[in-house]
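During the reporting period the student researcher (J.K.) took over the structure-prediction task from the postdoctoral fellow and processed the backlog of single-chain submissions. One of the processed entries is reproduced below for the supervisory committee.
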Amino acid sequence: MALPSGNQSSPIPRRPEGTGAIEEGGDPEGAAGAWRALVLARASERLAGITLCVLVDGGEDARRFGTLVEGLLDAGVRMIQVRDKSLTVPALVGRVRLAVELARRRSGADALIIVNDRPDVAVAVGAGGVHLGSDDLPLDLVRRVTGPTAVVGCTAHDLGEALAAVRGGADYLGVGPCFPSSTKSFGSHAGQEFLTEVAATIALPAFAIGGVTLDRLDDLRALGWQRVAVAAAITSAADPAAMAALFLERLQLPGAGVIPEAHPGELP
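J.K. obtained the following structure tokens:
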């Protein structure tokens, strides 16, 4: 069952039989190499121009959740991830369905609604895709649930996890945590060397995540980052829509908003 999405012009074929994981030194001209190239091309197309992903929880009630999502969409946010482990499944379904309806009504096919952890919920309500953590269903099994056209993102805490996600067919990465966060606690944070290496060598769209604020954007830009995923710095602001607009404006400053094309020498 393929997951409905606003743009299905470049669907990814299922992984060629027998290719398995793609090892270092493998033949880039083989079926596996071609499959990886298609993954990268489609991911770049689906996320073209998206520099900000806002992570939202379910809110106190559906009305307030809807008001938040509406404001973000009206501010120009094109990617929203619904992330709330405290909600019951019916409540989560209701929130995601509302977000999908608002996105379609206000942004047409332009905005992506991503569901954290739950590919089943994403498929059930027609969301754009799902984001996976290290403890979630493996990526290859998620594709059996969502089909090949869903946007599937993976969290990466180190270069090994990043490469595994890329080779497994992820559409984008969430890399971090970059800084201390008010929404989640972490035992350690991504070092500058890791962040620089991912930005320089992996061509797949990647979002810096974890404690990202306006004041920290310049630090991330200096390390080569073009995209960020933000939670509390936007959702806990006095005016979330206005704060989101500020992030988008800063991300479009010279040297920040131009997302380079992948080059053959980069790791896709």
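The committee noted the following: Residues 89-107 form the longest helix (19 residues).
J.K. will present the remaining backlog at the next meeting.
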